[in-house]
Design goal:
The complex is a heterodimer. In chain A, 77% of the residues lie in helices and 1% in strands. By secondary structure, chain A is mostly helical. Chain A has one domain: Orthogonal Bundle (ABC transporter involved in vitamin B12 uptake, BtuC). In chain A, strand 1 and strand 2 form a beta hairpin. The longest helix of chain B has 16 residues. In chain B, helix 3 runs parallel beside helix 5 and helix 4 packs antiparallel against helix 5. Chain B is an alpha/beta fold. The interface between A and B is medium-sized, with 23 and 30 residues.
Chain lengths: 345, 270
């Protein structure tokens, strides 16, 4: 029964994602018909058809603007959602999320520093690497502080998140204050979060760093299930808990780091998506991670479409949009949990 | 690891020699020497803070012994890999919380995790079904663990341990929060496991329960093993009174002759 339910949910999410992709390339300031897209793709494959767009502007829009942007949306949505699911698994708590506990802002601080100090010697990789380092340090800090004697206290977790966010915010402000105008603009846009201007080379970096990380977390899924029994019991069932946690923290930092490196801070995706999937499919981590991957990608594609079409002739920052939805959702989550289980104390 | 499943009756499961555990300057366990054979139920008893759970943790391989040596099947406990250990001994802890809303059945299924990829995985379904019917939790199979009552949680957790199908079982207060009927049932399960040749070590607070079902009783007091042997020899009124610091009466059970330990209470409301 659960198996068929999972199949239905995955199929629906896949359809939602496909629909989002189709709508995203067709709709925009520059409408493109489905036949033009198919023609452009066939031409790229060396097959010339009558559908191929004759206007080079259409071809350029398809290849250089829309498709990389869609690809980036899919990757970032999937990475942030999976990172959220993994973080919740290792903290044993549905409130853990890269944005909430400060991992995203740690990554943003790292990336901002890289921009400001012009550390672009390594090309596209330098910003991603700096974001990873920042995110990793923030994760370690949160983890070390919030975990005591094998359990996480929610209050400590959230307070640590506040502290990390505040510190990273101050660091960002300092960099903004000290740097030149061009870098300043770049950093500000970053903080708002946007998929605008995604390039294929960026997509490639995210793909190479992110996909293996996701694959590893799917491999860990069963061990995350056992972790829900508590660390000692998971150990009694043969899990090397310490190693699993450290590798998972590195994966979370990696996934969050590369996701925010090119598009900036996009909050709450890692909180909302795994939570909804868990409500529909239950907490088993294999279906949770795969579902979060599909759901996160679909959400991000649609959110990005909304971001660039809601207000005519302007591109809203997508981070603004997700926080606009995610904030109230977070609030509802807290209310619901208080009503159901008397809070998280 | 020469012995075949489920343990070899008559053989020795655990051999603890002069085991001590210190945390800082505090000694929690000192000079405990103990042999636990297969095919028997050993009850660990003693007052609060006597070191029962610590000893169980040392045997489980969680708590490293500061001094002395612990062997399982003749191999030092530290030399086992987590996976091999998980196929050899199962542990039921006192607190059994589950993060996220896994169902009872899913929790029991997790007990099969050590056997993934082995031939034993073929009997997963049987092991799970048997464990669930033995612990009387079939009725709550599809309910979320966090919504269960304390007693139901304890039984689901016990079922998870049974499903692991290991030759050695370590149970920390398996009867806590259970009603009278389920307490007896848990101990009957322990007896059945021992009959199959497994070694069962259970921390028990109810001395009469220990007296009725255990083959051997080990009594701890302030980190020391003060007595180890047959229930009738260990559970004497003098020893229980000196260790628990309350007056008791020990009478043989009219049916089985096994010791029943009752506190002496003054009659009136004086």
């Amino acid at each position: 029964m659960l198996r068929s339910r999972r199949a239905i949910v995955f199929t629906m999410l896949a359809l939602l994602l496909t629909g989002g992709i189709v709508a995203s390339y067709a709709i925009g300031q520059f409408p493109i018909s489905p036949s033009e897209l198919i023609g452009a793709i066939l031409r790229a494959l060396g097959i010339d058809t009558a559908w191929a767009p004759t206007d080079p502007l259409v071809d350029g829009t398809i290849w250089q603007v829309r498709l990389p942007r869609i690809a980036m949306a899919i990757l970032v949505g999937a990475l942030l959602s999976v990172a959220g699911a993994v973080m919740q698994a290792i903290f044993g708590n549905p409130l853990a999320e890269p944005g909430v506990v400060g991992v995203s802002s740690g990554a943003a601080l790292g990336a901002a520093a890289a921009i400001a100090f012009g550390a672009s010697a390594l090309g596209g990789w330098s910003i991603a690497a700096a974001a990873f380092v920042g995110g990793f340090l923030a994760t370690l800090l949160v983890y070390a502080t919030a975990r005591a004697r094998g359990r996480t206290e929610v209050v400590t977790l959230l307070l640590t998140g506040i502290a990390v966010n505040a510190f990273a915010g101050a660091g960002l402000a300092l960099i903004l204050f000290a740097t030149n105008t061009a870098s300043r603009e770049q950093i500000i846009f970053w903080q708002l979060g946007s998929l605008n201007g995604s390039r294929w080379v960026d997509v490639l970096v995210v793909l190479i760093a992110g996909l293996p990380a996701i694959a590893v977390t799917i491999g860990f899924a069963r061990r995350y299930d056992l972790l829900a029994l508590g660390e000692r019991t998971a150990g009694h069932l043969g899990v090397r808990v310490e190693r699993l946690r450290i590798v998972s923290i590195i994966l979370v930092a990696l996934m969050t780091g590369v996701a925010v490196a090119f598009v900036g801070i996009i909050a709450f995706v890692g909180l909302v998506v795994p939570h909804l999937i868990r409500m529909v499919l239950g907490p088993s981590h294999r279906s949770l991670i795969v579902g979060s991957l599909l759901g996160g990608a679909a959400l991000m594609v649609w959110a990005d479409l909304a971001a660039r079409t809601l207000v005519p002739a302007s591109d809203l920052p997508i981070g603004l949009l997700t926080s606009l939805i995610g904030g109230p959702f977070f609030f509802w989550l807290i209310r619901r949990n208080r009503a159901k289980a008397g809070g998280w104390a | 690891m020469t012995s075949s499943l489920p343990g070899n009756a008559g053989g020795v499961a655990y051999r603890a020699t002069d085991v001590g555990v210190r945390i800082g300057a505090t000694s929690i366990l000192e000079g405990v020497t103990l042999e636990v054979p297969y095919g028997r139920v050993l009850a660990l008893v003693g007052p609060n803070g006597a070191g029962k759970s610590t000893l169980l943790g040392v045997l489980a391989g969680d708590t490293p012994a500061t001094t002395g040596r612990v062997e399982l099947d003749g191999i030092a406990i530290d030399d086992w890999t987590p996976k091999e250990l998980a196929r050899r001994r199962a542990v039921l802890l006192q607190s059994n919380a589950v993060a996220f809303s896994f169902t009872s059945k899913q929790v029991v299924e997790m007990g099969r995790a050590p056997w993934i990829g082995t031939n034993a995985a073929d009997s997963d379904e049987n092991a799970i079904a048997a464990a669930m019917s033995e612990t009387d939790i079939v009725g709550v199979a599809d309910r979320a663990f966090p919504t269960l009552s304390g007693g139901e949680r304890a039984r689901v957790s016990l079922a998870r341990v049974l499903a692991q199908e290991t030759p050695v079982l370590l149970l920390d207060e398996p009867t806590a929060s259970l009603d009278l009927g389920h307490q007896e049932e848990v101990l009957r399960i322990a007896r059945r496991l021992a009959m199959q040749g497994r070694a069962v070590i259970a921390v028990l607070h109810d001395l009469s329960l220990a007296g009725a079902y255990a083959d051997d009783v080990a009594m701890l007091d302030q980190g020391h093993l003060v007595a180890h042997g047959a229930p009738a020899d260990v559970l004497t009124a003098e020893r229980v009174e000196s260790v628990y610091r309350t007056e008791v009466r020990v009478t043989p059970d009219p049916d089985t002759g096994r010791p029943i330990v009752l506190p002496r209470r003054s009659g009136g409301r004086s």
